[in-house]
Amino acid sequence: MRSWLRVGEDLPDAIASLLTIDRAMFTIGGRFRGHLTRRLHRPRASDGGPDSEHRTAMAHFVVLGSCPATPAPDAERSHLILGCLGDFIADTEIPWEDWFGDRGVREAAKLDEELARFRDHHQRRAQLILAGTSSPARRLRARVELACRIRCHVGLVGPAGCGAAEIAALIHHTSAPGEPWVCLDASLMDAELLEVYAAPVIAELREHGDTTGTLCLDRLDEMPVDAQRRLSEWMETWPQRLRVIGTLHEDSPAESAPVPLGDVLVDAMAVFSIVFPKLSSRHDDLELIAAGMVRSARFSRDAMELIQSYPWPGEWDEFAAALQFAGEMVSGDRIAREHLPLAIRSFRPRSPGDGQVSMHESEITIAPLPRSARDFQIDSLDEALRQFESELIAQAMTAAGGNKAEAARRLGISRSRLLRKLAEELPS
Questions:
Q1: Is there a shared CATH topology between the 115-277 domain and the 280-345 domain?
Q2: Where are the chain's structural domains?
């Protein structure tokens, strides 16, 4: 330092007083930081020598520790301070390899490769969810492709396990690549937790006026009320910069949600909503999806018929887990019935003759099983409508005592139309 200052062995009192560090200098805003930075200037020398230019340097001082100068408990302590003088550069100007070395570069490259592989895996899963030629698959695919071309709030509505998380990631990375985003389970978030876990996106929005971000919130319809208010405040603060992709599970129990969604969130989820069909309604797509998921083996006809007849109450998550299990169990190139999970291979479709057996003391009662919405089936819609129409005409004719004009009035049609309907029912 003496050579840099161009002074002799003893520092002048004026320079020494400036370089004397007091402990109070390390306290900023009432908090002891333990380090201090000062910029030193040496003015141009007046002798015009070769080293007479104006020079500057940064001096960093760090408190290493302290030792008691006297055994008295209230005595002042003399601090051990390390001072470094030199031409320091900003951290951003230091090459990344100099920070972490060759090993760090290799580990970072490996991590980037794993992240890329993880992203490709989830994108492939999302494409499989959208695969198929059935009408529900085509409608779902059209809505998702449109959502990938625009950037707006998106509401994903479907049963639990329908694959909404994979579709949300696909929509985000396709419509806004490189934009910061965070995925959270909204049902577990109160206002404070939401602040913490959403910080990677919210901090960017606060610090940079042109940054955009996305929050992907699973089970948004079960979000606590205080977290809803905080999220609504953010959406009103950055209406064009903050995007929300929310997943609403249509089979969520109503009692699990403390309050309904607020108006701000309801309006946001209505901007662009995508309804996921049940996997059981995509019977014709399952063979294609299964073949895309398990490429190392083929399915036997017996196994595929079982896959197509199983109702899949766990939706896409159960379907993907079952096929992964089958792929791990098979030793050859063909997946048979015995390679599927026990819950699936033991499934037996309900037949119309199945009954519900109950026993009371020594009396056994066999009653038909209650019909559910999934049991509905008719042979022909046209035939059912024709029979229903004939019954209504017969009831009107009976009520009118055979008077065709009165029967037509009761049916709300013209007399000529009633006559045509009656002529159609007469045998040719």
A1: no
A2: 2-90, 115-277, 280-345
Across the beta sheet with 273-275, the strand order is 181-185, 213-218, 242-249, 154-158, 273-275
Q: ∠ at Cα 31 (27, 36), nearest 5°?
A: 40
Q: What is the pLDDT of residues 1-60, one digit of tens each?
A: 666 666 666 666 666 666 666 666 767 656 666 777 777 776 666 665 555 566 677 777
CATH of 115-277 given 3.40.50.2300, 2.50.20.20, 1.20.1510.10, 3.40.50.300: 3.40.50.300
pTM of the entire structure? 0.57
Q: What is the pLDDT of residues 369-391, one digit of tens each?
A: 566 666 667 777 878 888 888 88
In tens, the pLDDT along 121-159 reads 778 888 899 999 999 999 999 999 999 999 999 999 998
**Overall average pLDDT of the 63-87 stretch:** 59
State percent of the chain over pLDDT 70. 72
246 CB contacts (<8 Å, ≥6 apart)?
153, 154, 155, 156, 186, 216, 217, 220, 221, 265, 268, 269
Going by C-beta distance under 8 Å and a sequence separation of 6 or more, which residues neighbour residue 428? none
- Residues 257 and 250: their CA atoms lie apart, in Å, by 12
Q: What is the CATH number of domain 280-345?
A: 1.10.8.60
* Closest by Cα among 264, 318, 257, 275 to 164: 275
Question: Whose structure tokens read 């929050």?
Answer: 215
Q: Which two tokens stand for residue 287?
A: 């063979």
Phi, psi dihedrals of residue 414, rounded to the nearest 5° = -80, 160
Whether the per-residue pLDDT at 368 is higher than 90: the answer is no
